[in-house]
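Sequence of GMC oxidoreductase (Triangularia verruculosa).
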Amino acid sequence: MEQQPDFVIVGGGTSGLVLAARLTEDPNISVLVLEAGREHTDDPRLRTPAFWLSVLGSADFDWSYNTVPQRALGGKVIPLSQGRLLGGSSAINGLAFVANSKAAVDSWAALGNHGWDWETLSPYYKKFHTLSAPSNLAEKHLRLSYVDSSVSGSTGPVQVSFPEETNDPLPSAWVDTIAGLGYPATSDPFSGQFSGAYINALSVDPISRTRSDATTAYFEPIKSRANLQVVTGAFVEKVLFDTTGNVPKAVGIQVQKDGRALGFTAKKEVILCAGVFGTPKLLELSGVGNRNILEQHNIPVIFENPNVGENLQDHPVSTVSVEVADGVKTIDALARQDPEAVGAAMQEYLTNKSGPFAVGNYTGSLLPVPDFAGPDGKSTLDQILGEIETSNSNPITGPFTPHHTSAVHAILSNPAESVANIFMYAAKANVKPVNSGSDIISNDNDDDTPPGSFISICAALLLPLSRGSSHISSSDPADKPTIDPAYLEHPLDLEVQARLLRYAETIIRAEPLSGFIKARGRRNPGAPADLSDLEVAKEYAKASALSCWHPTSTCAMLPLEKGGVVDPSLRVHGVEGLRIVDASVIPLATRGNPQTTVYAVAERAADLIKEEYGIVA
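Predicted 3D structure, token representation.
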């Protein structure tokens, strides 16, 4: 094992493996990747798309974080999954392949990040993936006429496809219902300018119908390169700095591997790809962060930056389940692990690579807040903003607050922009899970009612103004960080989330979807029979809130005075030789699942590093 590679990459997840693959394209550049988890590339629970829920919460695959009790949610503790294995969260996520928006990315540049606008980043969204066209039958059934091959990738390593489930009437009913309510798909989502109901693509190989992730796409094809070392089961404890110069310089890392303490030196850089919670934790353990926190845990201060671990953003989601009419097929029987249903689904998958095991989450919509998009929308929004300002009820503070508020208000007030993901899955929800895993889908052990079949309508807030934090809980690297996303603490977030739930009620009652729903049927425990009343919707939004597991921004790419931790080259402010490349640098929550944006950021970061060091591709 080379003790002094050119680059030491901490974290073999989504972004870490992208960097490793791209930097080692030059045979003269050596790269060492250190991953705390193990490699599980061939595990069928990872490769089979629908099995993703079964691995969440497992110590073999998941860091299994939890939030502190959430103040705005009555003290509720929210489970948070993050990948702890080679491939990171790309290997355990729900496979939804959702594009960011032009407006959201352009706001990055407006916040002070030159070179991070849509025009610059959009080619990287295309670079990392290949989208396979749907069959003619699937295109017609799933209403995929909006797909535009010119804005999607055609040569990238991550394989992306659409479901080929053409016998299920629910997805097309979903799209037709929301289109009928005034929100048809306006364009291809990867154009950057999209709203409406649609079927999103999945990170699923179209031939094998197995998961395509950073491991299969980036690592497997190049793992035999002589200039690449990937070490699993390597728990990085801190970054080592040389403080003899005017500016502290990262020179290596300290690791625990198989009960032994090891050290590695980087000739050029240490690159942190440890994720939204792991990266700020490593910075703080290494002496970069808020002086008060570091001194509380007797950690010498290398560089004081109170922004480290701050600005945490995540997508809260509230869900209501409604019973479907007799004869409508859902996956509730699979959630109950009914032997006959599981056996039939497995046989269909093994024989034809089809059926419920072949797909992840794919029935969704990207929408404005309907209350703010109609003829009276602007006045409604202005009234709410005025009431919040007058009441002085915003608890969210910090140097990023005015810039964040301005960016979100601009997008909220544009009826062409999407700030909500309202999506559907065909099973009953459990809105009070105890793990990070499959218990978000009810197995009917949580109530005394007879088993039934349900669909769940989920309303996710994509641009929350609530921001929280993730900080070390002690100086012991083995201890998990203290995570507080502050869900729904900003009063505007609750106003928006309640209105999205109220719109979910409108969708439930609209044709053709309503034709699949049982009249006077049951709902999930605790769900109101009617969410049309705004105050009722607010209370249920808080009671049912969970995480979409889309955290970002704890080491935001921003100027230091605006709350930043890294500069536009993703170099850590105040030190040398240290860079961050993962979801923690994204300054504004992504419009939908962050997977695609993390890949794109990593691809662009690789080019920035190559340019800086004259690395030949």
